[in-house]
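Rotation project, supervised by the postdoc (A.L.). Task for the rotation student: set up a whole-complex structure prediction and record inputs and outputs verbatim in this book. Inputs entered:
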Amino acid sequence: MIGARSQDEFVAARRQDWQELDHILLEGGESLAKKDGAAISRLAALYRSLCTDLMRARAARYTPDLTAYLDALAARAHATLYGAEPFRLPDVVSFFTRDFPRALRQNARFFAIACALFFLPSLVGIAGALASDEFAAHVLPSSVLQGMAQMYSEGLSGRDAGTDTGMAGFYVFNNVGIAFRCFATGVLFGAGSIFFLIYNGLFTGTVVGHVMSVGHGGNIWTFMCSHAPFELTAIVIAGGAGLEMGYALVETRGRTRIGSLRRAAPSIVRQVLGAAAMLLIAAGIEGFWSPSGLPPPVKWAASGVFSLLIVLYLALAGRSAEEAPR
Amino acid sequence: MIHRETLREPLDTSAEIETPEHVRFRHQIAGPARRALAYLIDLVVRGVIVFAVGMLAAIGGIAVGPALRGASTGFVLLVLFAIEWGYYVFFETLWSGRTPGKRALSLRVVTDGGQPLRFGDSLLRNLLRAADLLPPFIEPLSFLGTYAVGLAVMGRDPRFRRLGDLVGGTLVIVEERHTVAGRFALRPAPRPAELASLPARLPLSGEELDAIELFLRRLDRLSPARANELAEMTAPVFARRMGVRYKDATRFLGVLHYRAHAHRGQEGAASGPKPRRKKEVSA
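Outputs recorded:
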């Protein structure tokens, strides 16, 4: 006998519970962690009875302002009761030992395409800049080229710690930003990722080629060798994740475009997070180790070890019987 | 879960959520203007943080000397990076879908199933900002985005989602504390003469009575002139139907409402649907 009650009678009978619920929600900033056990069980009971009230109000076709009030109260109670999953340390560990390399291996196709999109333009840049100064001048403003040539004109003899920290901060800011943009713009059907991969590849290659052509090739290669395995791999991983995202919009496998994007989401989040972690490592090396005065053979040895570790890690970590065949 | 029929709902600014209790309630979806305001507040907050850190680093650099100057530059850049890419993820994860700006405008990010936001969802939707903010403003404001792409995508989506929301599977909802209107009472109470001029059984449909009730419950939020303007849209129709005249449209609707409910009170609600447009004397 829902209809038997007028709205005013209904509100008068239930209002006290609603106000109590509102009051419990307001206490402690709507966070469940800041409430004691009694308040939580009272909150849960009030929420369930509120849900009943809401259905009743809708069935009896009470005025929209009443249902809007109940809707909003139910939404707030729901947001408080069903809190976000807690952050757990084992998840972080299994992310690095298993989830990230697996996600990358499953996306090997786009990783390979991203490698080609980045490294082929790099080679073009190196070759072009070595062949003619005009090529370099076409790609980059001459001020940038002169600055780069100046930077690598002296041997690496170590800097003071302050400058090292400063540069490490710059590399985090600049390089992780580049990688994130490389990824994010992939949502435009992959176009942004393709553009940024080629652009950054050509940029990097041209700088290296130009510095080589003015005679400081040894310096720049020795500088780059230690952090490049981390940095360039990470940028390519981010670009590959962007391509996967763009392709999910094109090849939907019977889903809606948005559904297809959502399906790819867990994999692309893992790859971008992994790439970000690699870039942080790269920034540390680039800031403190690469510019140090250590003899070049030591740096090249480190480069070899780093490269080997990265390949082994990405190829083997988390590879066990439980890896789902694709 | 949002159900497909939600998309055909007449109200296009709400999304229906079904909870684990199989209760459905509606979230009000936030529009671009409100979200832009929240963005501006967050922008100011971010600017203040970066400025404060920059000042501290500069003072530290001058005080300690060149040894620290490079390090403090690096520190400022780290903070700049953390603010640019981490600010939203940090607050949305910590405050369950809210940033200071969203909090100020009672906005919250939830998953499109109405569930609280997880870290991965927040990360995706905020990384994708880099695509939504395209194209950037021209120099010297090129570090800010125009959000043209995001706005265009929002305009095409029935739930105002930008690219980051689509990929992250999120919605931005309005979460306000509404108040429920109190009992409506006609003041001064209707005079017998006013009631006598009305037919004993009102020729009004249930929907018309609902509309009158909704209007009367909103009276305390309307200025008298505006209330009268609204009442004048319907009062003449009802008056003509009943063959009566009125002086004050708002009061006329109030009397009708009073009469309808007094009538219901006498006969009880079980009397069934009232006949429409039928002028007859009740028993």
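Student's summary: The CA atoms of residues 289 and 298 of chain A lie 11 Å apart.
Supervisor addendum: The mean pLDDT of chain A is 83.
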